[in-house]
């Protein structure tokens, strides 16, 4: 059996109708997992799940829309996953929000709270919802998609960076808490990836060229280049890894 084999595993991924989340769902399905596609819009989830089912077989994916700001909606997502597949082996907290771009001093209270609630508190909610069954089986993997913003300062996405640093600490805390129960909790910290979410950071050609010039690999990343890390953290290949943050950024932070 391959170290990366996910046959029989159920992987729930938020923010998975496009970008890093969708690439991760496809990569997990390639390794034999059942995947749950979730984002705010049901039609987008349906389209992504249909594509995965067409590629890997009917019943590989289901689509359940949920807004990460809605605790009851997240519980419904977890309940629907269990109803369809019977269990949740891997949780990937990928969805996030960043409604403000500019100096920290200019952010409105409601924008700051939305970032903290959606990027930290919602992860806490979901993890709390899935951890009990993982504890019963003495096995599970939780992956939080953070950002290299959590390792660096910023003059334009400061609140987002604060939230992503908090995600790294959330993983460290929960690694201690859940480790005795066989549950691993890790983060992935991508650099700039070509997704709609990060469009403001890469669509300006001059700014992108400047960024590429200071990146050792001289380019920004693609969603598929993060998906492999999700498979690694979901599989037994990472069985002795917990509480860590994997930086995948083309070398920017070195």
From TrEMBL:
SUPFAM superfamilies: NAD(P)-binding Rossmann-fold domains. InterPro entries: NAD(P)-bd_dom_sf, Sc_DH/Rdtase_CS, SDR_fam. Signal peptide: none annotated. Pfam families: adh_short_C2. PROSITE patterns: ADH_SHORT. Belongs to the short-chain dehydrogenases/reductases (SDR) family. PANTHER family: DEHYDROGENASE/REDUCTASE (SDR FAMILY) MEMBER 4, DEHYDROGENASE_REDUCTASE 4. This is SDR family oxidoreductase. It comes from Sphingomonas corticis. The lineage of its organism: Bacteria, Pseudomonadati, Pseudomonadota, Alphaproteobacteria, Sphingomonadales.
